[in-house]
């Protein structure tokens, strides 16, 4: 498998996080307003989605062009954003875009759960370059990530159905990334315990 080309980490972070930050900024600016485009009225949330979708497409294509490869998670996210974001814009209904994280997390949970049942280290195929570990470590991490994605799916449903639109945007922009960071920090001992020795490079 061809290794991805290295790019400036600040540029990669901007391409990864830029669309989400832009969505947050546009939503906060227009959340209490109605935006009229081509004779149709859109809420601030739908307008932010309208900005977010093409920007994410451009940034993802730029990452592919610069690195020569996209991860399965990036591809799945792009497809679901285009589909569910497009439905929200077309039908002028924010519910589709709010359900998108739930669908993504359920898909990931199902794939990881299937890999445990089939005794395949699919997670290792995706993350082994960053986290070289023994097979037992990957099985434990796969189980924990399966439960994590199920929990995130439930949390996303609870927030968008029971709380305000602003609360959901804050949860998506800050809460979900923070949970992922805390999860990996909390598993640092697992990585150390089952780590494989790295090459001299």
Automatic annotation (TrEMBL):
Predominant cellular place of this UniProt entry's protein? membrane
InterPro entries in alphabetical order: YciB
Q: Which Pfam families match?
A: IspA
Gene Ontology cellular component annotations, sorted alphabetically? plasma membrane
- Membrane topology label: Multi-pass membrane protein
**TM stretches of this protein:** 12-30, 42-63, 75-91, 103-120, 141-162, 174-191
Protein keywords: Cell inner membrane, Cell membrane, Membrane, Transmembrane, Transmembrane helix
Location(s), subcellular: Cell inner membrane
HAMAP family found in the cross-reference section: YciB (MF_00189)
Job description of the protein: Plays a role in cell envelope biogenesis, maintenance of cell envelope integrity and membrane homeostasis.
**Similarity-based family:** Belongs to the YciB family.
Protein's name according to its UniProt entry = Inner membrane-spanning protein YciB
Which source organism does the UniProt entry give?
Paracoccus kondratievae
């Amino acid at each position: 498998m061809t290794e991805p080309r290295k790019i400036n980490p600040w540029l990669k972070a901007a391409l990864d996080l830029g669309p989400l930050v832009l969505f947050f900024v546009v939503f906060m600016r227009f959340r209490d307003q109605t935006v009229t485009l081509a004779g149709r009225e859109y809420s601030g949330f739908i307008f932010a989605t309208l900005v977010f979708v093409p920007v994410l497409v451009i940034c993802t294509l730029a990452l592919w062009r610069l690195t020569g490869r996209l991860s399965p998670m990036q591809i799945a996210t792009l497809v679901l954003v285009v589909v569910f974001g497009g439905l929200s814009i077309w039908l002028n209904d924010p519910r589709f875009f709010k359900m998108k994280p739930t669908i993504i997390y359920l898909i990931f949970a199902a794939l990881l759960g299937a890999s445990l049942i089939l005794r395949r280290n699919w997670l290792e195929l995706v993350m082994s370059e960053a986290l070289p570990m023994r097979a037992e470590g990957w099985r434990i991490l796969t189980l924990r990530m399966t439960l994590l994605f199920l929990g995130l799916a439930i949390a996303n449903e609870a927030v968008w159905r029971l709380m305000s639109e602003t609360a959901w945007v804050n949860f998506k922009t800050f809460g979900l990334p923070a949970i992922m960071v805390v999860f990996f920090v909390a598993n640092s001992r697992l990585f150390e315990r089952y780590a494989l020795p790295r090459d001299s490079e």
